Give the backbone structure.
Amino acid sequence: MAKVKWGVLGAGGIARRRTIPGLINARNAELVAVMDTAEELAREVKAEFGARRAYTATEALLADPEVEAVYIASPVAFHKQQALACAAGGKHVLIEKPIAMTAREGEEVIKACDDAGIIAAAGFMMRFHTYHRQLREIIAAGRLGRIVSCRAQLTCWYPEIPGAWRQKTATSGGGAMMDMGIHCIDLIQYITGTKAVRVSGMTDTLAFGYEVEDAATLLLRLDNGAVASVDAYFCIPDAAARGRLEIYGTRGSALCEGTIGQVESGTADVLLGDDTLGYDAKQDRVDVTPVKLLSDFGNMYTSQIEAFGRSILEGAPVAVPLADALRAQRIVEACYESAKTRGTVDL
Ligand SMILES: NC(=O)c1ccc[n+]([C@@H]2O[C@H](COP(=O)([O-])OP(=O)(O)OC[C@H]3O[C@@H](n4cnc5c(N)ncnc54)[C@H](O)[C@@H]3O)[C@@H](O)[C@H]2O)c1
């Protein structure tokens, strides 16, 4: 099978932990080169995964003639300049979320990629979770009826770490909502096939002393009339995380636990009701057998790399267009504006 030859910018964090291991197992991918500003780390990652070359400069990786596609997993402050360099160098690019520091910068990234005619996508790998994909199909087929309410939640324990780029607005663009809630926002729109049109948010720093928010909740008005909420918290212990996704419609509901996260696992219950029945004053819970979803778990990071490879090799539609990442980032920015002004923000 034809393989896309990959280079990685920012090899030490999520790239080393999840995406490169996922890439190594992808049928249509080959790791050629890694780059990290930390030289020793770049060498270690090269050796760990059998890459051919390790670099410490973006330009050096982009000058590598073997590299066809680049995965950007550096801190967010570097995404824009590295994405523009990929576009200028004619390399296809998969950019971790958020794709740039601001939505305004994200627009520049999209324009540069479009002008260069390269394939570009964002790293919302949770779209590839088998339960999320099956739910999207169930909802598109109308089996939950009209969607009226959703909730998605991603939390972790993230105490103060001296020098951490995520904990300063100037290097992260935002806290829990920008870093984690953005996945939930994307998932809600992706799974339900809707777009948010209005945002109301509250952000706080409840547990820790850093600059960005460690607690954020937002409400979205979706374009089908439903309301969705997203919880993003840096201050809930990992052992207590639920990672819930809830979707309610006029014919049924779906409840996932543990599907929003880095490992493709968790549970999903889909309950279907009968929307032709009249009002039952007793509101008895009828025993219904949950619809069983196929638990054919894979690795979301492998699926993400394979899907991107199919776009390059076979012309398949891009699974996570940058425009969707830009939309999610605009929603996060609207959440911050709403939190500041205590008003709602129309998109
Ligand atoms: N999709 C996911 O599951 C997921 C999970 C975590 C992080 N992320 C995203 O991945 C990106 C990186 O986050 P992280 O948690 O891996 O961060 P990190 O700080 O753990 O790792 C970043 C790596 O980039 C290196 N680096 C620093 N400056 C660089 C530069 N100018 N060029 C290249 N490399 C540089 C660092 O040495 C480090 O090895 C962020 O956009 C983040 O939101 C995605």
